[in-house]
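Q: TLDc domain-containing protein, please. Structure only.
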Amino acid sequence: MGASSSTEQPVSAEQRELENIAASTGALPLLQKSFSNLSDPQTNAISIQALQQCFHLCYEDPVCESQQKPESFPRLLDHLGSSIVDLFFLSEKGGINWLGFLGGYVKCCGRMSTSMSLNILLRIFAMAVKKLGLSSNLEFEPDAADCKINGSLVPSDLLLLLWMCWAMLWNVRTLKSSERKGNLLLPDINHLVLSAVVACAEVDSSFDLWNCDIVGLDVQLPVGKFLNWAITTAPTLSDCLTQYVNRRLQISVLAEDEAGSSESISGDMSPNASQALLLTRGRAWAISLAPRSTITEEILKLCFSADIVGTDENLLYRSSTHGKGLNRFWSNVEGYHGPLLVLISANSEDAYQDNNKARKWIIGALTQQGFENKDTFYGSSGNLYAISPIFHVFSPSGKEKNYVYSHLYPTGRVYESHPKPVGIAFGGTTTNERIFIDEDFAKLTVRHHAMDKTYQPGSLIPNQGFLPVEASIAEVEVWGLGGKTAKEVQDSYKKREELFTEQRRKVDLKTFATWDDSPEKMMIDMMGDPNRVQREDR
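A: Structure for TLDc domain-containing protein:
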């Protein structure tokens, strides 16, 4: 095995270098244990078939939330494990020795740039497609040290690639043994595919984002432009490969009853569980693909929970359930001190087609802290999102810090010659907010990015012009992403406020003492004889 070979034989410089690289990722102990478990004691090597079986993805027939499902996808997953082994793990006559095992892991999961890891992901995808017997427009330079790629993708290829990444994450976070099969739920990710199509292909203004057939869309996405899009919009997409390889190696080492970690979520995911919510699994996953942050883990828990609707501790406010309006909103989010994700579904007043059906769109905002009742902007960081029908991320620009605005009517009404707007806003300036929700949660105003220096420029809604867009709000959701601690702090705050309110409602009659000391008797006595001299207690 790897540990014994290092002690019984002289260690070569190549092996020492590979072991140091693997140790820098924290995976060297896992690699040593898995090699010992998978290798043949006689040859001290792993057979190709054993390693392919180790990386094989087990699943039952996929269930898709979207109606657009390529029939070739299940067979593509069957070639995932063999593609990883054939590309990176070099085999000698007796199998894959310790040096080949180390080198293969470092090639696919070692420390590298985002562009390099995306290249590796594309190589695995292209190999699986080739094994499936389908054609691919991707071309790789075999001897290039930086794995240069030429060619292009079509939208159906991108859908398969993204689903392959989702399937690897699903396997990491739901299954507890190498033999168990679970229901693989494929989320609706058309908004992600359309984001890449608009960014990489040449589409005109008449392109219909709402009624687009992703599988049948015949446009070319140059691989260079796709990589630029992925680095900007989904930089953590390739993390799924490292997590998948590590998880499969862990399962090969641990016994079945010990393979699941405390963070793994077991149970089958219902295909219709999240469809009623604005935050579906596909939209949550798209948000989680942004640069790593403290909310990534909380978002992924929502993606792979058995019942996303049942996660009441995360869904703080929903207008259709708790009622519309700023007061209802405030009563549900007050006291929550943690990251919050706000999603707004609306339709423009003039966005109607010939069939008189409104085209709804969804935008969102992420704050790194709870809401405060202020008449000025505040906040430390955040993001804006165009979520549906197309996905975009607008990170902070660093020029201004007008992240959040949330203002209620003051408790003591006083005259103000220039009253501050009452509502919730993100970006822009006072009275020129980039996103503004009125106090009744009835109207949403979206302004051009020229009014905003806090977030990156770009259109939040399709075909957005320079003039402000006023839309009717259909639904508002607020998700708490601060974990259990933030929710417990809010619960204790609400209990304390309820206690204070109950105490203020109660009247202690003992404080009024007797009739002789009451204000009413004093008034009656004064009316009867106002000139009567009364003794004043000093």
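A: Brief note, in case it's useful. The CA atoms of residues 78 and 151 lie 25 Å apart.
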